[in-house]
């Protein structure tokens, strides 16, 4: 039986990660809340929420895990060519609500979204605390793409991205990697395997390896973390 977390007690510990299901991969627990304390504790443990409307909150820790070192990302020749055109302007934390709302829109071939209204409220609360961040990719005054996630210590936990123009989200991700590397971040959690992220240098590691890295990096300070007031043409 899937363990249930106490809705009113965010100090109730998560189950051991070794008890997560193999099918579906990584399903660990249900219930609880999306309050900041619960969410940040989850990320530190290598756990994230993912559920749809009508479902209880579901908590996941898949094995293996896809990760990327910000200093080791790779850019393809075609993407370098796109960047050289300087079609976009990238910023941080200037339009978090717009980014997460755009990420929540159903994709082609999908009926719904896992970024529910309760998830949006929860991550907006994290943003107000300075724990969640957005990357905006602008074409003039139009939001062409972006992504958002959570920063804990020297780890950035990527959540979702969207693109309304070709290469917009990819260029936003490159901007993120460059900035995180400069700030001393050691790890980006990409959650599950993706061909696109693999092409940028992401790799899959075991859950045990992942959580061992979190134990070290989540407690480390960044070197020069300045999420605000950044704007770069790409």
**Structural domain tally:** 2
Helix percentage range:
25-40%
Summed up, the helix count is: 7
Q: How much β-strand is present in the residues?
A: 25-35%
Q: Tell me the CATH topology of the largest domain.
A: Aminopeptidase
CATH class of the largest domain: Alpha Beta
- Regions with little confidence, pLDDT below 50 for 5+ residues: 229-234
Mean pLDDT: 91
Molecular shape: globular
Structural class: alpha+beta
Q: How many β-strand stretches? A: 12
| Spatial order of strands in the largest sheet | 11-5-10-9-8-7-6-12
* Major pleated sheet: 8 strands, mixed
Q: What is the H/E order?
A: EEHEEEHEHHEEEHEHEHE
Radius of gyration: 17 Å
Q: Alpha-carbon distance between the termini?
A: 49 Å
CATH architecture of the largest domain: 3-Layer(aba) Sandwich
What would CATH call the homologous superfamily of the largest domain? Leucyl/phenylalanyl-tRNA-protein transferase, C-terminal domain
């Amino acid at each position: 039986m899937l363990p249930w977390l106490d809705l009113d007690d965010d100090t109730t510990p998560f189950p051991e990660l070794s008890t997560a299901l193999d099918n579906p991969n990584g399903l660990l627990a249900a219930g609880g809340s999306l309050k900041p304390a619960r969410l940040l504790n989850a990320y530190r443990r290598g756990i994230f929420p993912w559920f749809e409307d009508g479902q209880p909150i579901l908590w996941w820790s898949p094995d293996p895990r896809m990760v990327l070192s910000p200093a080791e990302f790779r850019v393809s020749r075609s993407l370098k060519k796109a960047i050289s055109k300087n079609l976009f302007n990238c910023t941080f934390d200037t339009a978090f609500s717009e980014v997460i709302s755009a990420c929540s829109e159903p994709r082609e071939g999908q009926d719904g979204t896992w970024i529910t209204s309760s998830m949006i409220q929860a991550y907006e609360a994290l943003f107000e605390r300075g724990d969640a961040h957005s990357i905006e990719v602008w074409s003039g005054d139009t939001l062409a793409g972006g992504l958002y996630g959570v920063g804990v210590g020297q780890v950035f936990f990527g959540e979702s991205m969207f693109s309304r123009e070709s290469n917009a989200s990819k260029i936003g991700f490159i901007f993120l990697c460059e900035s995180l590397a400069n700030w001393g971040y050691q790890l980006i959690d990409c959650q599950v395997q993706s061909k696109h992220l693999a092409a940028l240098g992401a790799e899959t590691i075991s859950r045990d390896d992942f959580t061992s890295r979190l134990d070290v990096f989540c407690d480390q300070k960044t070197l020069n973390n300045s999420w605000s007031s950044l704007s770069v043409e790409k």
